[in-house]
Design brief:
alpha+beta, Alpha-lytic protease prodomain-like, 63% helix, 12% strand, zinc ion transmembrane transporter activity, transmembrane
């Protein structure tokens, strides 16, 4: 349900008040689902440990019926989501949630068979612990990745020191400052920078060519392609005035 709502909202076009539209709603939805999976996985682990010391009677036949019904439903959902599970954070979270349910159903079926054939009541406990061990690491990974986006950390695989050094290698570029990079949503990395170039470039009219070189550099030379690059070209005099104003603010 959460994934469906988020996917629908993402289709809304940008506006003057929401310039990126609802592109980041997928990250918010995925964060919520990852947090929920983390809670469910933790609960399963805690409950499993408790049942190790306080075993309860579990009806094997009824457990098997519910497990089979749940597995069929979850396999159908996984089939629908499988092709798009890497499309964005939202779909990854939705697939992970369905996978969690499917693993739970498999665990229930296995536990039910063991209980029905051997009478070993702790089978469901071990199944719960096994499922928790599979789900928790994936939930933590998704939680960490979505948090990185919301905190506007530099995109994975991008070293801004390398970006800065690469831009500084371009002719007439003397300084790069206020360099920032983040991710709005899946497939939408953005970068911005103030680039100081020789004053003569403005006088000779070569500044647009340098700007194009910088944009091409940021789009083609790094592991992440920055199609959205906001570059402010500055003269040395403008840089000095800006620094002076900041120091005396």
């Amino acid at each position: 349900m959460v994934a469906a709502i988020a996917a629908t909202m993402m289709l809304r076009p940008p506006s003057s008040k929401r310039t990126w539209g609802f592109a980041r709603i997928e990250v918010v939805a995925a964060l919520g689902q990852a947090a929920l999976l983390l809670v469910v996985g933790t609960y399963a682990a805690v409950e499993g440990v408790r049942r190790l010391f306080e075993p309860t009677q579990v009806p094997g036949t009824e457990l098997l019926v519910f497990g089979v019904i749940g597995l069929v439903a979850n396999l159908a959902a996984m089939g629908i989501l499988a092709s798009s599970r890497e499309a964005n954070f939202n779909m990854r979270a939705a697939f992970l949630e369905v996978l969690n349910d499917a693993l739970g159903s498999i665990g229930v079926i296995v536990a039910a068979i063991v209980i029905a054939t051997t009478g070993f009541q702790r089978a469901d406990t071990f199944a719960a612990l096994f499922i928790a061990a599979l789900i928790l690491p994936r939930a933590v990974t998704l939680l960490r990745e979505t948090t990185r986006v919301l905190m506007e950390f530099t995109p994975e695989g991008v070293d801004l020191d390398i970006v800065r050094a690469h831009v500084l290698e371009l002719d007439h570029v003397t300084e790069v400052h206020d360099l920032h990079a983040s991710t709005i949503g899946t497939g939408l990395p953005v970068i911005s920078a103030h680039v100081v170039i020789d004053d003569e470039c403005f006088e000779s009219g070569h500044a647009p060519q340098i700007l194009e070189q910088i944009r091409s550099c940021m789009k083609e030379h790094f592991p992440v392609s920055f199609d959205h690059a906001t570059i402010q070209l500055e003269t040395t005099a403008l840089r000095d005035r800006t620094c002076h104003a900041i120091q005396h603010a």
